Automatic annotation (TrEMBL), chain A:
The keyword Disulfide bond does not apply. Its main location: nucleus. Belongs to the eukaryotic RPC7 RNA polymerase subunit family. This is DNA-directed RNA polymerase III subunit. It comes from the Eukaryota. Residues 154-215 are annotated as: Disordered. The keyword Disulfide bond does not apply. Keywords: Nucleus. Residues 163-187, 199-208 have a biased composition (Acidic residues). DNA-dependent RNA polymerase catalyzes the transcription of DNA into RNA using the four ribonucleoside triphosphates as substrates. Specific peripheric component of RNA polymerase III which synthesizes small RNAs, such as 5S rRNA and tRNAs. The gene is LOC100181260. GO terms for biological process: transcription by RNA polymerase III. Pfam families: RNA_pol_3_Rpc31. GO terms for cellular component: RNA polymerase III complex. It comes from Ciona intestinalis.
Automatic annotation (TrEMBL), chain B:
This is DNA-directed RNA polymerase III subunit RPC3. Component of the RNA polymerase III (Pol III) complex consisting of 17 subunits. It is found in: Nucleus. Keywords: DNA-directed RNA polymerase, Nucleus, Transcription. Residues 188-211 are annotated as: Disordered. The gene is LOC100186818. The keyword Transcription applies. One of its GO terms (cellular component) is RNA polymerase III complex. Residues 8-67 form the RNA polymerase III subunit RPC82-related helix-turn-helix domain. InterPro entries: POLR3C_WHD, RNA_pol_III_RPC82-rel_HTH, RNA_pol_III_Rpc82_C, RPC3, WH-like_DNA-bd_sf. Residues 337-411 form the DNA-directed RNA polymerase III subunit RPC3 winged-helix domain. DNA-dependent RNA polymerase catalyzes the transcription of DNA into RNA using the four ribonucleoside triphosphates as substrates. Specific core component of RNA polymerase III which synthesizes small RNAs, such as 5S rRNA and tRNAs.
TrEMBL record, chain C:
One of its GO terms (cellular component) is cytoplasm. This is DNA-directed RNA polymerase III subunit RPC6. Keywords: DNA-directed RNA polymerase, Nucleus, Transcription. Component of the RNA polymerase III complex consisting of 17 subunits: a ten-subunit horseshoe-shaped catalytic core composed of POLR3A/RPC1, POLR3B/RPC2, POLR1C/RPAC1, POLR1D/RPAC2, POLR3K/RPC10, POLR2E/RPABC1, POLR2F/RPABC2, POLR2H/RPABC3, POLR2K/RPABC4 and POLR2L/RPABC5; a mobile stalk composed of two subunits POLR3H/RPC8 and CRCP/RPC9, protruding from the core and functioning primarily in transcription initiation; and additional subunits homologous to general transcription factors of the RNA polymerase II machinery, POLR3C/RPC3-POLR3F/RPC6-POLR3G/RPC7 heterotrimer required for transcription initiation and POLR3D/RPC4-POLR3E/RPC5 heterodimer involved in both transcription initiation and termination. PANTHER family: RNA POLYMERASE III DNA DIRECTED , 39KD SUBUNIT-RELATED. Its main location: nucleus. It is found in: Nucleus. GO terms for biological process: transcription by RNA polymerase III. Belongs to the eukaryotic RPC34/RPC39 RNA polymerase subunit family. It comes from the Eukaryota.
Amino acid sequence: MSRGGKGRGRGRGSMTFNVEAIGFGRGDALPASTLQPPLPYPPLRQQPVPLLAGEETDYLLALKKEYIQTMQNSPYFIQAEQAKNDIVRYSDKYKSSKNMDNTINWKPDWRRLPSELKVAVRKKRLAQNIGPPPKLVKHLKTGADITKTLDALEKKESKTDHEENEEEEEQEENFENEEEQEEDENDYLTSYFDNGENYLDEEEDNLDDKDGGIY
Amino acid sequence: MSSRECLLAYELLQEHYGKIAADVASFLLQNGWQPLRYIALKANLKLDQVRKALCLLIQHKLAKFHVRKRKIVEYAINIENVLSILFHPKFIYTVKLLYGDAAELIVEEALQHGIILMSTAIKNVADRLPDENGSGKIEKAFKDLVQTHFLQREPEVEKNEEEEYIVPIFTQNEADLYRLPTLSEESLKRKRSDDGSDEPKAKRLKSEHETPSVKDDGVYWSVNISRFQQYFRDQSIVASVTQRFGTPCGEIVRAMLRISEVTTPANAQSTQPISSAEIARSLPQKLPMEHVEQHLKLLSNDEDQIVQLFDDSGSGGLYVVNLKNSALALATATVLSYVQQRYGSKACRIFRLLMLKKHLEQKQVEEFAMIPPKEAKGYLYHMLAENMVIMQEVPRTPDHAPARTFYLYSVNIQRLSRILLVKCYKTCTNLMTRHNHLIKTNKRILDKEERITAIKVRVNATLPDADEAQLEEIEEMMTSSERTSLTKHQHCCNKLHTAQNQLLNTIFVLDSYLNALSSA
Amino acid sequence: KMQTDVEVKQEATIPLTLETEILALCNDNPKGISDKSLESAVAGYDVKQRVTAINRLLTMGKLELLKGSSGLIYRIKTPSAVGSISGVDNQEKLVYQIIESAGNKGIWTREIRYKCNLMLTEVNKILKNLESKKIIKAVKSVAAAKRKVYMLYNLQPDRSVTGGAWYSDQDFESEFVEVLNQQCFKFLQQKCENAEKETTLSPTATNASSFASSEEVLEFISKLGISKVTLSPEDIETILNTLIYDGKVQQTVVPVANGESKKLFKALKPLIETTDFARTPCSLCPVFNECQPGGEISPENCLYMDEWMEY
């Protein structure tokens, strides 16, 4: 605040601005002093305007959640490399183990991309002969049965509202993808608590690289 | 391109495509055009991961590339497209309203894949729709979307004779932008059977197959974002006109906008001039010609000049919708609404007063607004402190003595629109950050729920007549307090999502206005 | 015999001289001179002469008698009407004239000083005098709090001084203004609704009948009887203007018969009811700028979001 009019050491001088403008006049008591730092979240006097509600709102909400879920489960989604958990969790089986390696899970139209971007495309392991996994636990039921019951489940679900089941199906899809690999001919089946899954992937990829890959 | 936009872009990409893609994009946003190896080096990522990220970003039109010095390929981000990810659910919903379920799914597929072949889109949608004979309907929906420009054709790759090429070269005639390929029923059928019958018919995301026999090979389609933006813009203009002037006027403006839908370029200032006769003809609910003319006259007399009289000649006159004025009117209304909510009605009165009178001194503000001086000062200074209101010193004497200086207050809508938009971006990021935090915090419960659901599915599948006790046991794996936490978590996430969905309406209005300014 | 002549002569002149002397003494002591001091000052004269002189001066209105703490005080009397009493202070006359010419708008000290070129102390003295005589009065002006303007005693101060209808004893009647604001808006709103209910009218006619003049509004307000003072159309217009600044009313000008133009007012609906940004807690947040992910104030620990997500 500039007080140009005040003489030095000459006692009360006049100020160059209208004193009332500050909010209190001459001789009035100063406003109450604050004794503590201001609260990080001072109380609000009012709440924000309520969110819109209705059919459109609900539908858009469902769409948004679905869309995010689909994108996160899509082959496009690139999972960041996660530190290996020392405890194998059941949910690891359902987490995407895709994209933690050097292959791309979807097939781009390479003609549309600069040639330097070409990456190996992960092959679908439909009918490949996988070497015996290091660890094995026999499953309760045989592979074929599981596929059958899954198919039955599929058919049931395809009849219901596909939107509601989208999420479940995505989980199903994850589940299926894993199952697919072991579908044919082998009796090396995944168990409920199999932890050989990840080992398989890495080994396989190494194989690819040894062969020279696809560049 | 502000840093706030980059932060929001990061969050969106991380949510939809993963951290690696987000990191690559973040690096490019901060550093402009960069080559592949440099990205990997400086962003500290594995080369293949960067490749994957770039493939995905380019596929989804979120990144672009060019060649420099004939050898080096550089990449950059299309930030507007990244921010448009926010609007994807709204795109899908819009199409559902306009063209039905088949169209909805087509647009969903197109958004999920970025660019897509017509045949793939039709096929994927057919798999998802229960209707067996649906492919005809789906094809029609696709055609509708193309004809109304909601889908657009991507430029095609020029045939390259050489074996070695660095980057593909794209060409497109303007006429081809919406030209449909001819797909025969044959090729569609063949495509379906190529899937392999031993694969279960899962409703999942499929990537392109390389069936060379399909006639539309290489002809890709994507969502035309600016067409959707035009639609949203038209909707908001009609909504505000209806709100202020009533339904008949709203319908008139809607008709005007519809007539000029495909003839008005995206950044035009006004629509083409339309005669009142034509407008009257295109109204869904007929009004007497005289009334239409009167409404138009009233609209064109309004201060905001959303509708303007173009020419008086001829019977009834020619009118335009002035898009630039509409953008300004909507942006102004947005800013005013914000001021009202945050500072109160009295402060809003002062604000609007300043807007109308351009410059005022504090004294004059108190006088015109008829608010007690102490109160008026309070509001004015609060708004000044938060940069809503600007103060300018106009000295009367050379020594700038305060007692002899004018202190003039004013507001600048353009500046405020930008400030408010940045706040919206930050708010969106805040909501997403909180969402991520919730997921992290409740990870344990969420994982547990996932497991339980999976177990339930398994049990139902393998033991079709599982008895009550077993099912109950599974249910009890989750304690009631955990269940409560889970419900609360869902509620909070829903609220955060819904808030984002509605926030983007404000973002849209402000962004369109600022774009309209820069394109003028 | 000579002695007697001299004596007579002396006697005749003494009263006049004494009067002048007493007056001069009182002039020198404008605050008044006590009986005792006067006595000693004119000691040369006897009591009878002194008393006579004082009585004469009092009768003529040149002196006034006051009761002091220690006895009687004689004070020079300022004239109550200009020109009617001789010896009246010219300065006072000047000040009086200046104030008179200011009419019922009044004039403040600095300006008086400027116009009569007297020193502040002089002016203040004169003002105090005039005031105590109830010749002039001081009125607080709403233009500047704590500033007084002076005007003739029996004048009604002008509205610009008192603040007119919106001020009662220098207090701005904000509640009154607010009530008027609401009532005027209600009236205009109702007028609009009535016009719209008339389905037989054309759009132009509907629009026209939604407008009202300030006189019309004034009539409505007067009938409500909420105002203690009579309001003028201009008063109503200042209220209607506040409604324009509230964005609730619009104004239009139409030409009238005699070549002039008239202002008309109509209730207005907003273009946007509420912007969706205002539905988020961040729009109200006082610490928005300090908020950073991972910071002390952050989206993760935001109290406002906590509260907001409760319902």
